[in-house]
Design brief:
65% helix; 168 residues; mainly alpha
Length: 168
């Protein structure tokens, strides 16, 4: 269902928390080495991020965590779904602008301050901060895929993978 106007906060909230992200989660797990439990947790935090951006649309910048930002990238890549979801939440396209530091809109300190605002709002709305969801095995997975892993890291990588499977 597409709204022909700017959806109310309640309409957007109902829509956000009913979005089916199973295909994105499946891609993250099957193709990019995420643990399923980490991807599911990140999807929940991403929903919260969307809600915060709807509710606090007048805030200048509410940057996501790294994990949530990565999930956002996956969502954007499913262009038809992303556009439809944005229409149903924001009444139009919700742009991702990754150049805040590069084009000097914010320096590193400013970005940190903006993220602290995101954290504060997340705590106020949901009772907890946004936390890192990825297990420590993911960086090793990326390194392994790129051939940069030292032998001693392989043992830790396989240990992490076994822990991911236990938690899924």
């Amino acid at each position: 269902m597409l709204f022909s106007h700017n959806p109310s906060l309640e309409q957007a909230k109902q829509y956000i928390y009913s979005i089916d992200f199973s295909m994105i989660i499946q891609k993250m797990v099957n193709h990019d080495g995420w643990c399923e439990s980490d991807a599911v947790k990140t999807a929940d935090l991403y929903r919260n991020f969307l809600y915060l951006n709807k509710k606090y649309a007048t805030e200048t910048i509410l940057p996501p965590s790294q994990d949530v930002d990565e999930f956002w990238h996956y969502h954007i890549l499913d262009t038809k779904k992303y556009i439809q979801d944005c229409e149903n939440i924001f009444g139009g396209y919700f742009h991702h602008y990754p150049y805040l530091i590069i084009d000097h809109q914010l320096d590193q300190h400013g970005l940190s301050q903006a993220f602290m605002r995101t954290q504060t709002l997340h705590i106020e709305e949901f009772g907890s901060p946004i936390y890192a969801t990825r297990s420590s095995c993911l960086p090793f997975w990326y390194s392994l895929k790129r051939g940069f892993v030292k032998v001693k890291c392989l043992a830790l990588y396989f240990y992490c993978i076994s822990k991911c499977k236990e938690n899924s």
